[in-house]
Amino acid sequence: MDGPRSHKGQDSFIAEQVRTDRLQQLFRQSVSAVLGSYLAAIMLSWLCWHRFEHNLILGWLTILTASTLLRISMFVSYFRSPKSERTPQRWERKYWITLVLSASIWGGGAFMVMPADDLLSQALVMLFTVGMCVSAVSCYSAYRDMTLVSIGLVLLPCTAWLLFQPSTLQVGMALSIIVFAAFAARATHKMSQALETAFRLTREMERANSISTRAAQTDELTGLKSRRAFFEHAQQLYDECEANRLGLCAVMLDMDHFKHINDTYGHQVGDQVLRQMGRVISSSFRSTDIHGRLGGEEFAVLLPDTSIEVAIEIAEELVQTIGELMIEPVHRVTASLGVASTEAGHKDLHSLMNNADKALYRAKALGRNQVAVAQ
Known about the structure:
This protein is of the alpha+beta class. The protein has eleven helices and five strands.
């Protein structure tokens, strides 16, 4: 049952990421559309200044200016906010409100200023409204519903009025606008689907890459770092401690008589012992410490900013914890540990780990199930 639930959870997480990607594209693409729609209204008013009623033009531009400033303030707030707060839950509703307001003002204003008896002015108004719709298709393509609502609010008032006029030319103009709107709606649907698919594929590839990277760095059996990942992080930690003049201790751990456990009880029991070791090691150290499985039954831990005395205490507690493990049918599990410190003057990571390894073998030679310190 855990598998399907986990899969659904991952799908839900990707869906939320895709939704956030769509929102980011919406804000990035539509800044120019907001300014462009305002400039289009000014240009239309300038071209038809002597054909439109001046009071209507000024009133329309005043209201449009207010709505444009409102949208600009929203954009400024969005781009100034931390990335963690740029979520669909926080911004989609705000965007919808400002879009509907702006599109309604544009479509309603264009209808109000359009003269009832001037075909040339009517054609110019419709030309500009079509241009606004083309802009909507390109800028709001990530959101199909937004695009369709924007097109409808801008085109509907003037188109509906032309459709019921006595002139064949006016009716033909309205019908051609309706045909255009139908094609624009179809194109919007395809563009929206293509963008969502692209966003989803990108996020799924990122997740797959993250999973493969994590798998390469993690020992599958114990959950600790793999040998390669351990030494990559160990070198970084060694360099940091050396640069900051901090002490660094290395602890090497090897299970006692592990081959006997495998030969007597089978490899499944041996694997269970290693899993338990992974849990013990993971829970016994700080988040700043680095630990990993170097291979077989051998483990290593690096303790930054730690004196040799403290490292010995930690290692002895670990020996005691391992000795208290109850893993059936194995009667007793023990481990030998070797400890070394940079305080002894080791010049590199290899030298430090090598001395801890020598101490580990000395612990085994002294009878196992104990801690030995590098000489």
